[in-house]
Structure formats: structure tokens, C-alpha cells
Amino acid sequence: MVTDPATMEPEEDGFKPRPIRDDSEMDITPMIDIVFLLLIYFLVCSSQQMQSVLLPPAIYGTAVSDVKSLTFMVEYNPGALPTVSQMDGSRKNTFSSTPELQTSSIIQSVTEAKRKGVMDVLLKIDKDLKQKDLEEIRRAVSEVEGVKLYMAVDDSKKKED
User: Fold this and answer.
1) Taking a C-beta distance cutoff of 8 angstroms, is the pair 105, 95 a contact?
2) Cα–Cα separations (whole angstroms), residue 125 to 17, 18, 75
3) Stated pTM of the model
4) Mean pLDDT in residue range 103-113
5) Mean pLDDT, rounded, of the chain
């Protein structure tokens, strides 16, 4: 039961007595503190070296062979059009740097590969490229009907410090 401070009379020395609090509600602040302390304890204690886990093979995804597919290397050029090169065995055929000639060269290469029975196109993309830089290349590959486009990020290049 809480007494109303407005109805309380001041004492002779000027101090008012404290109102009596009703302690029927439970304060859960200490319980929250203990839960966080336990959480920190378990996080610190569980930071041991994790064992490697053998993962099962993917059910829906399959690997794409770069030997049995038409492979393009797409390299990042700061402030310019990405460099597109066709990989033909160990040979690297670099396409023109103008957008129109690059697009027509990609369409021509994909069409020629389709005539030879190659239906998979693999883009090996430099890790610094943005999606907007790849839009024209993807559109050029999708101009040829019936081919499947696969993309892989090539992060083997190390940045120089």
C-alpha cells in the first residue's frame, strides 16, 4: 500500500517520511544480469577449435566443367568497360573494348559454340566487378536461346598493399 505524499503532514524537523512501497511486483533486473553473465561465460568457454565437418554433396547444384563449356574471363578495369576474354584451351582471346563490338563478339562466340554442341557458358568474374558491370555481358549471352549461363567469382588475385 502506497500512501499519497500530498496528504502526508510534514514532520517537525521538515522531513517527510518516505511513502511505503507495495512490493507485490517482482523486479527481474537481477535475473537479466545473471542471464547475460551466463551468456558471456558460455561464449568465452565455447571458443575452442572447431572440428572439421564432412558436408554431404549438393543435391540440386552440379559442378560446371570449364573444359566442356564456353568460358569467358571478365576482368575489372577501373573507370572503364570490363575486359572480356574467351578462354580456348590455354589461349586467351580478348574482345574489343567498345560496348557494341564486345557484345557482338560475345553473341558470335556463344552462337558458334552452340553449333558445336556446347550448351554451357561459364563466366569467370573478377571479384572487384559489380553487378551493373556484368549486365551487358549477361544480356549478350542470353541473346542465344538454349544455352545455360553459369557465373563463378575468381578471387585468386591478391590485392597489392
Assistant:
1) yes
2) 77, 73, 6
3) 0.56
4) 89
5) 79
